[in-house]
Design goal:
The complex is a heterotetramer, with two copies of chain A (about 130 residues) and two copies of chain B (about 375 residues).
Chain A: H1 7-14, E1 27-33, E2 38-47, E3 50-59, H2 62-75, H3 80-84, H4 88-94, H5 108-124
Antiparallel strand pairs in A: 1-2, 2-3
Helix pairs in contact in A: 1-2
Chain B: E1 4-5, H1 16-22, H2 24-27, H3 38-58, E2 65-68, H4 71-85, E3 92-96, H5 101-112, E4 116-120, H6 130-136, E5 141-145, H7 159-168, E6 172-176, E7 195-199, E8 210-214, H8 240-278, E9 282-284, E10 295-300, H9 305-314, E11 317-318, E12 323-325, E13 330-332, H10 334-338, H11 343-347, E14 349-353, H12 360-379
Parallel strand pairs in B: 1-11, 3-4, 3-5, 5-6, 6-7
Antiparallel strand pairs in B: 2-8, 7-8, 9-10, 10-14, 12-13
The chains are: A alpha+beta (about 130), B alpha/beta (about 375).
The structure holds pyridoxal-5'-phosphate (PLP) (2 copies).
One pyridoxal-5'-phosphate binds next to helix 4 of chain B.
């Protein structure tokens, strides 16, 4: 059976926020791959433990685009810890819901962000240096 | 908003003339075709004239046509029915890697119950090689089922030669002709076909109706059980209005076949050329010759198909893709992958399928709207490298 | 000529409101419900609202409704699907002697592949005894399939008690409710039903559509294979107009249930009394209470049913008989014989089945025409002895 | 599937010839039975080796009635030997055809006649007396 996106999802699909790259990003993280048909690259700039800027590029379906868009909008300006609380459930809620078979697409951005911060912390952990 | 329907391989609009023909059978001549009274006889007569119309389109005898509930059921009855009827002769079935799920899943089911199935590979055009087929035949082979034309990339197979090979070895030959009927001239005699599946809704007839052609003398076992309708092969009260509409759709397709093919081929070629010219890094999937007159299938580098379909939908264009991002994970078309296309390109495929009702205008609209959409999606894609 | 249709157990006229509801889905909202575009979404939405309408009529959740191609297919999927899914639990099935061929023939097929089937007898009213059912259950029993109402003699079974018995023993309970839906109030929860078959064309919906209710959590295996439609249980492009019409028919039936039952029961009783009073040596087949509101079945001594049907047809009355003089030899209704009726009386049975559209006038016409016809046939019969 | 009778069959069904009994029949022969759903009783009066009169009663379907009717019409007045040539095929032809599944009904009358004559011959065979 087909599925239906609500207006808000469509709006984010048609006018995605924060698309692009950040040249001097602190972290660049890619999840997925063209082989699995879903791929997202997240560019993050941090300042004083806050997400100063974030951009994305995605090779993915409409839900992947819309969830990445709203996710970047939601984490921008937040502290890293606050941003880590924006899980896929939060994203789906913020969009007013997704068709059941599309819910998994909302994992891409939070996953990428989570991985990114983990890597970043590891790299900047004084104990590890 | 303008709406342009270009997903005719998924389903088609029912022809007005077909609707008109069906209408009286809903509330005037509504009898059960098995009943012994005037209402029943009207229904039975309508059924038999529809049987003639379907038979005429494929060069069969009316008595060789069995009405079903659609292409899937025709495929199931053909494959399971032949397999079960010939169990004592052998347990080997040959099919291709690019069949519709109605064939592939039925074959997989048979594998679970002790049959052996060979899934023949295809070349870059989606074509099964005759020598591969010849080599695959064993003493145990009881059925060869190869589709006439592919639903995704439009490849038309050389069924006549395959049929001859099968006949020569006394093996039943079935072809899923759901996509080709009404778009490719086909004669079951000429093409040595023993069983053939058709679905009404792919040729401007109503949904939920189909037919299975079974050559006289072919041993086949029923797989649905009940009141003995359709000579026991497909019991259930006959869907008279649906069958009448299907018959009419076949008659129309028969009468306009040459004209329809010419119309669709010319629009198809214009569309293919227009897209490939306008959009860099786009490739045509499927063959250049012996291709369904209504099929266009093109992949765009770095673009994901479902996003493309959604963007097209937003400007009123209905098309489809070989990408299905469903429940758990995305899957690329098994057909495109079988032709050797990369996953990325398979995910980025767009199928545009025409019908006799498609106009120059529709094609022009696609050529206007598609390039900027592909450009926009590429600008968002991490895989796209500007040159 | 006047024409009076009284064969509504065979099939019914499609309600005008149902036709109107279906029409746009032929050539306007004609998309494939699996497609990712506006045409597909229109179709998918229509499908889901039809699913709600069907679910409401029987007290099910929409997710428990699977659309099929009719009653026969629903019965096949239910019985084969439960049998195959539970093969490791047991191989015994219980049914009744008076089921429709869609159930009986499916059970016979399972017997050929190693299942054991008990065909419970019925009493003179066509009723299965609860204690017979209880006694028939063994450790191996995996399915009980007993029809809700009989298509020939209108007997309504006590499915609630049967369902309770089945539930108690952890056995799946299926009921063929093709004849009862829209004529008997039924709630799958209240009646402890796990699977239930419906057919659209028996309640003023279009032919070639049906539904199977499958209680959430019931283990069932698909028996038709393809593209995964209807959550894999019934693949094939959904018959959207047909399903929409079916949904509408269910909605209408739901809204008018009490009124319809009252209307038909009162005409039924008038007809039964009228015939039995006017024609000597005529007997009512089937029960006096718990009888389908639209069913009349009467046998006339010394009269053969098919001749009777033909004579009625000549005066424009469409009815049916339990006698089928087919290909090789005549056969009397297995249902009538199971109630203990003699062959002669079984051959002489007349079924008159009403609908919500049947009028007083129709009944009057039958009461005017039938007695002289029976008299004429008796005058020609070697079995008739004037008193 | 249902079936359809032609006009001639219907005409014989509605106005069957020679229905009834012959009180002083030379032979009365019944084939079939109520148990098999088809039953025909033939009353035959012979004179000088000719079928002087013949009547029938049947418990059977429309085809049984029509074929019995036309059969009696055809044999009446013929010599016994000529009448024995009126097989079911001849009856079906004379009616202008029967639906396939109804052809077997046309066996009733010729069978009954055949049996009747055989029995009659046996009874009246001087050698057997
Ligand atoms: C090649 C092919 N075979 C079979 C089918 C199944 O037909 P239906 O949807 O009528 O069951 C389809 C279409 O869905 C098809 O394209
Ligand atoms: C009791 C019963 N079950 C099943 C069926 C089969 O339904 P369908 O003809 O829709 O396949 C019928 C009617 O034919 C019926 O009366």
């Amino acid at each position: 059976m087909g599925y239906e996106f609500n207006e808000k999802v469509i709006e984010h699909f048609e006018n995605p926020r924060n698309v692009g790259e950040i040249e001097d990003a602190d972290i660049v993280e890619t999840v997925g791959s063209p082989v699995c048909g879903d791929m997202l690259t997240l560019y993050i700039k941090l300042k004083d433990d806050k997400v100063e800027d974030v951009k994305f590029k995605t090779f993915g379906c409409g839900a992947a685009i819309a969830t990445s868009s709203i996710f970047t909008e939601m984490v921008k300006g937040k502290t890293v810890d606050e941003a880590l609380k924006i899980t896929s459930d939060v994203v789906v809620d913020a969009l007013g819901g997704l068709p059941e078979k599309k819910v998994h697409c909302s994992l891409l951005a939070p996953d990428a962000f989570h991985n990114a911060i983990e890597k970043y912390k590891k790299e900047h952990d004084p104990k590890e240096q | 908003m303008k709406r342009v329907y270009l997903d005719n391989s998924a389903t088609t609009a029912v022809d007005r003339a077909v609707i008109e023909t069906m209408l009286p059978y809903f509330d005037k001549a509504y009898g059960n075709a098995s009943s012994f009274h005037s209402f029943g006889r009207e229904a039975a007569r309508a059924l038999e004239s529809a049987r003639d119309q379907v038979a005429t389109l494929i060069g069969a005898k009316p008595s060789e046509i069995y009405f079903t509930a659609g292409g899937t059921e025709s495929d199931n009855i053909a494959i399971l029915g032949i397999a079960y009827a010939n169990r004592d002769k052998g347990n080997h079935i040959i099919t291709s890697a690019i069949e519709h799920p109605a064939v592939l899943e039925t074959c997989r089911h048979l594998e679970e119950s002790g049959f052996k199935v060979t899934y023949l590979p295809v070349d870059i055009d989606g074509r099964v090689s005759l020598s591969d087929l010849r080599d695959a035949i064993t003493e145990e082979t009881i059925l060869i089922t190869i589709m006439h034309a592919n639903n995704e990339i439009g490849t038309i197979q050389h069924v006549r030669d395959m049929g001859a090979l099968a006949r020569d070895r006394n093996i039943a030959f079935h072809t899923d002709a759901v996509q080709s009927i009404g778009k490719v001239p086909l004669d079951v005699e000429f093409s040595n076909i023993d069983l053939l599946s058709i679905s009404s809704h792919k040729l401007h007839g109503p949904k939920g109706v189909g037919a299975l052609y079974v050559r006289e003398g072919t041993a086949i076992t029923p797989v649905i059980f009940g009141g003995g309708h359709e000579r026991g092969l497909r019991p259930s009260t006959e869907n008279v209005p649906g069958i009448v509409g299907f018959g009419k759709a076949c008659e129309i397709a028969h009468n306009r076949l040459d004209e329809d093919i010419e119309h669709m081929s010319s629009l198809r070629d214009k569309l293919i050329k227009g897209i490939l010219d306008a959009i860099p890094k786009s490739v045509l999937n499927g063959p250049c010759s012996d291709r369904l007159c209504n099929n266009v299938n093109i992949s765009f580098e770095a673009v994901e198909g479902e996003a493309l379909i959604l963007a097209l939908d937003r400007v009123g264009i209905a098309a489809s893709t070989g990408s299905a991002c469903s429940s758990k994970k995305s899957t690329a078309s098994h057909v495109l992958l079988a032709t050797g296309l990369s996953e990325q390109m398979a995910y980025g495929s767009l199928r545009i399928s025409l019908s006799r009702f498609t106009t120059e205008d529709d094609i022009g609209y696609v050529l206007e709207k598609l390039p900027p959409i592909v450009e926009r999606l590429r600008s968002m894609s991490p895989l796209w490298k500007e040159e």
